[in-house]
Design brief:
Layout: E1 3-6, H1 10-22, E2 30-33, H2 37-47, E3 50-51, H3 55-60, E4 64-67, H4 74-81, E5 90-93, H5 100-106, E6 113-117, E7 127-133, H6 139-150, E8 153-157, H7 163-190, H8 195-216, H9 220-227, H10 233-243, H11 246-262
Parallel strand pairs: 1-2, 1-4, 2-3, 4-5, 5-6, 7-8
Antiparallel strand pairs: 6-7
Helix pairs in contact: 7-8, 7-11
GO molecular function: pyrroline-5-carboxylate reductase activity
Protein name: Pyrroline-5-carboxylate reductase
Domain Pyrroline-5-carboxylate reductase catalytic N-terminal: 2-96
Length: 265
Amino acid sequence: MKIGFIGVGAMAQAIIQGLLKAEFVPAQDILVHSAHQDHYEKYAAQYGLTPKESNTAVVDGSDLVVLAVVPAVVTDVVAEIRGELSAKKTLISIVSGVSLDRLEELTDYNLPILRSLPNINSEFGQGMTAVAANENLTGDRKAQAISLYQATGSVLELKESQFSVFSAISGSAVAYVDFFIDSLSRAGVKYGFTKEMATQIAAQTTLGSAHSLMASKKSPAEMIDKVSSPGGDTIAGILAMEEAGFLPSVIKGIDATIAKSTGNH
């Protein structure tokens, strides 16, 4: 199976790195091209990928074609590759805000298409990706396309109407979790730890807590109760954060993210 990437920005690179770490396909079976020749050729050489001289060459040589360009150039790029796309190839889009209906309008109504919203953690095999397939993508072909993201983390099949909320609590929330970790580490610095040491403690604790939550099958509230002794330090901290508006501030952040992405700000 050959996988072609049109565009090799940060998100495309995260997926590629995740695929390489998972040994999903040999490096040379990943084909790349972007508008910046020096950039994609150096990137391909660094990781043993196959650089292609054009977007059409990527499509021609690939089974799965990952459209990883910015929304502003989607129309032009798809017009360029439309002649090489066929029902024998699967188009996978990671372009934010471009619906399946729009992709079908730009390409071919017989083309199998998977719309996806991966996040940057795909680079380390810990990604969280939402997918939605059009009616032409079914059975083994659909499973093949989704397997690309299963190799880089977890996958959920959602309705497109849920994508903006998913993006807020998965894509943008990567930054919000990092913000929380940084806040914990700054608190550690306040009490004498070095920033490096405090960040290591906070990051590992966050990682371990997420793993424990998923492995336990319990709710976050149950896990909070598990470490909150009656009259203890932890519940005192929880109550202080609640009093300071921790929960409303998180929800307001998600509200703002969704409003911005949907144009309702």
